[in-house]
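Final report, Chapter 2: Outcomes

The project's central promise was a pipeline that accepts a single protein chain and returns its three-dimensional structure in a standardized token representation, suitable for archiving and comparison. That pipeline is now operational. To close this chapter, we reproduce one record exactly as it appears in the project archive, with the input sequence first and the structure output second.
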Amino acid sequence: MCMTYRLAAKFSDLFGSKNDLEFYKELALRSRGEALELGVGTARVAIPVARAGITVVGIDNSLHMLRVAREKLAKKSAAVRRRVILKRGDMRNFESKQVFSFIYIPAWAAGRNRL
């Protein structure tokens, strides 16, 4: 069973921490390659990473989260839009022939975690 986040998708970013964005951007820049974000949700992290110049493939199993991510992405520059590739899939059993130099699962409420 997978959660759809139908009702929560538009409010998801309210629960995410902004203090983790620099952490993920720095790791992505150090990796010097494309990134894979598992559980991309609303692209809260993927968009800032893409803004820093990194291509991000984001996977999420929720159509509702991906819809919000696409809405947010539509408001960004063409360069950022080109660097974020959103795909529906389950992080537990997806397959990819693409090689990534950085793979991450961002903390949903990172403000409560110690990074």
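Archive annotation: The first strand starts at residue 35 and ends at 38.
This record, like all others produced under the grant, will remain available to the consortium after the project formally closes.
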